[in-house]
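If you are new to this repository, start here. Below is one unmodified record pulled from the training split, so you can see the exact layout before writing a loader.
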Amino acid sequence: MTLTPQPQNVEQVARTPLWCLRCGDLSGMDILLNVILFLPLGFGLRLAGWPRRRVLLAAFATTLFVELAQYFFIVGRDATLSDILTNTTGGLLGMVLAERFPLLLWPSPRAARWLAAGAGAFWLALQAVTAWGDGVTLPERPFWGQLAPELGQFDRFRGTVTAAKVAGEAMPSARLPDIRSVRERLLAGGGLEASAVSGQPTARLAPIVSVFDEGQQEITLLGQWDRDLVFRIHTRAWSLGLRGPALRLARALPADSGRPFTASGRLHDGYLEIVADTGSGPRTRRLALSPSFGWSLVLPFENYAFGDAVRLLTALWLGGLLLPLGYWAARSRAGVPGPGSALLLIGITITAGLAGVAALFRLPPVHWSEWLAAGAGAGAGWLLGRRGA
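And here is the target side for that same chain:
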């Protein structure tokens, strides 16, 4: 994963200082993933009986080797001080987790109550951060409209754009004249529209029309990936260096060149919406943003957009996060008859995290599958906890 060449990123790597601590537009995502990447190393070595100092030295030496290889030999890979610090931190946290592992698996009832409370609070905080990150936020800097631009981090749209609109107004391939008005309309739910003639399918995401600010920060983009249509817009998650929400409409664009089509995308009232029309009637996909989409904030896959797997991934995410809550809640009742209060606490936590957070941040009601997944995860944890009690 870390030593695979990425020649398409050479220009971006050249702009990244070796000593940077927050590197690139997705710096927050990189920091979290680098910590997680080395957790198993520290965990496994400490569990195998290595002394603390040796575990930390192994984590540091491993990441130093990787960064030196990336800097001197591997094309298109970032080598930074941030990676060394975050990887080593991940090894440290894995080591601490290994030392506390027996307590986490077999806590006393009193410790289990604290662990259950911590698990519930962590999940609620994660739901709130995700919901907050789904809100659109736009910098107060000049915006530039772009029709089929050639940008180093993207593929190139091989068709021709005949007309474009941003938030309902005609968009030139130049600096936009009334930035304040454009910002207000985008914040109110406006989006991008394009009329174009198709080209060949693309290998990577290619902007059909896009808006960037003068600092080369992406504001909103409507693009083609293979034959899929993709829309995304700048949200608070991007401001934290995390991956913002994007929507994909599969097989929406023509497979051959020379065919006219129209496309549009927007984020309005908590719904991502994308529309494509190749002449046989519009195809539309609409997805309600959810506080349970936290998994998408840190996906390492380049230019990910919500596809058909969004419900399954969300269910796995919720089930995995709420299983420890159910487990520790059950362990907190060891030797005590009657599960009423602990189950009530689980129910209140799930309701607050799904319905309460969505309402607080003015998002649409969550999908029924999220309730099912949350209940299944907490229920599975409860059964495991009671069996081992």
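Two things worth knowing about this chain: The longest helix spans residues 109-133. The chain has three domains: 7-99, 107-134+292-389, 143-288.
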